Amino acid sequence: MAGIGKAVAEFEDLLPVMAEKLGGEGLMRELSNGFELLMDKERGVITVESLKRNAAVLGLQDLGHDELVSMVEEGDTDGDGALSEMEFCVLMFRLSPGLMEESQLLLEEILQEELKSAAFS
Q: Where is the EF-hand domain (predicted)?
């Protein structure tokens, strides 16, 4: 998994900007488009092989096989060796420090409001 941090560190985190400009639905649509671009068309998932074939689109053409394997393993929550669309989207959010921070702040705000509401009930 060392490769994933190396690859991510080279790119600016644009997901928060995209989220702000596109809104939640627009961002999810763009992530879905990204997934379709990277997926193995026959299997409907992102595999190491499909990622390798499309790595140049992401500017990752210099990553080795082990680093691409690490990227897939990082998001593969069900252990099937590939990324479903949901796993891909979750991984993109996890790899975006800006979105994770915004999500945490939003969650904290919602929890505080819930606690206030519960106190007045």
A: 63-98
